[in-house]
Amino acid sequence: MFETIDYLQFGNKNQKRAFLAIENLGIIHSLSEYHPILCGTLPIGIDILGSDLDIIMNVVEFTSFEKKVTAFFGNHHDFKLKKTSIRNVPVIKANFTFEGFEFEIFGQPQPVKEQYAYIHMIIENTILNHNPCLKDEVIKLKEQGLKTEPAFCKLLGLEGDPYESLLEFGKSKQII
């Protein structure tokens, strides 16, 4: 379902706005060789004011990716590019704003469907589909300052590192 952004056209008001912004930006087409997928809260309808649009990609060669991202999006407001490491995996991130949305382009040398952002979104979406009443509670916790994964863990009674706990929950429920 999340391989393309077409579903956003039929979503809530913010999802429709995001669809147009992403299309107008041309990011999916411009960086298609990196298999971009929109992840995070907006695709599953639990975004709040200030939620960004996370687009994850499989990036092996950082130098050419950096040049392309800078050439395509470097002129956008608040453009920043950063290389770092998360869980001992090198990542490259670009952030900027466009049409009222903060974008985060996130690349790491791993297929997108194996990245935490995608797996967490699939787990969270499945939880919400089975328990629609949790949606408002997750949003409320997010508005109080909790990040998404910690909010889900709190509601599910999961302890420990929320990012790992959510993965283990997904595995135990055979979601992933």
UniProtKB/TrEMBL annotation:
Pfam families: DUF4269. It comes from the Bacteria. This is DUF4269 domain-containing protein. It comes from Psychrobacillus glaciei.
